Amino acid sequence: MTFRHLFLKNFSASSANTHAVYTKHDVYTHIAYTVEQFLMLPSITLGNHEYEKSGEVYIPLSICQQFYHNGSLSPANESFRIDTHVDEECSLIYPLHPFSTITANPLNFTLHFERLLAVTVKFTLKSVNLETVQYHELPDCYVFNIMITFDNKPHSGRIGIDLDNDVQIYECRDWTVTGASQRDMYIMVLFDIMVILILLLSLLLCTRSVKAGVLLQFEYAAFFSRRYSKRVSFSDRMEFINGWYILIIVSDVLTITGSLLKIIIQLKAMASYDLCSILLGTGTMFVWIGVLRFMGYLKKYNILIITLRAAFPNVIRFSCCAAMIYLGYCFCGWIVLGPYHTKFRTLNVVSETLFSLINGDDMFATFKNMQQKSYVVWLFSRLYLYTFVSLFIYMVLSLFITLITDTYDTMKHQRLDGEPVSDLQAFIMQCKDPPESGHFSVNETRFLMCCFTHRTCGSDD
Question: Has keyword Iron (predicted)?
Answer without folding.
Answer: no
